[in-house]
Model the fold of this input.
Amino acid sequence: MVVGSSSACDALFAGTSTSPDGTASAAQPSAAEQDQALPDEFGALDREIEGEEEARHREREELERREQARTLALEAARQSQRHAVAAVFAAGRCEFGDCVANGWTARVEEGEIRTRCSFGKCLENGWETTFPDGTRATTRCSFGKCLENGWETNFPDGSRATTRCSFGKCASDGWETSLPAGGSSNTRCKFGKCFENGWDTRLPDGSAVSCSCSFGDCLGNGAECG
Done:
């Protein structure tokens, strides 16, 4: 029998190994081959981690968007309430020293809210209010007596705010206003004299607006509110 060279034998049996029962089996991957496979495994892991981070980032962005929308909605509601309060009572600088006859102007973040008396008699005929965006609200005294019976204000969008004097005496006991967005604002005179000492108004969301008469005369000099 002719025996091949050792190199031929090595070539013949390369890639195989002998199991304990004498049969040949495939050889295990070499260390070099195992090292080569590691980058692929790490790459897949990195891609999985990146995917999870992107998902978390999108979730954070969505939460931030919802929070911003909620903040804007709340601010719009507050601004609507401030506009309604400004439209239904003198809360600003009197025009030509007489709010009752000439109206008043109130400054807000967006600009000016200008109010002018109808036919020169605010407390009998009511007034018209122009907001910074150019829209207008019209107020009419109930039965021609604002300080006894209250007033109603109609807004450009068709909504309405209704004000009633407390105990029929707005000047001393204050008033309550049903606002278009829902809820009511309650106003109380300071020390029983709204037109000398000013008033405090609490809005439906719990916030408050305090107005003080300029030089002790709201009807002549106006009021400062904040």
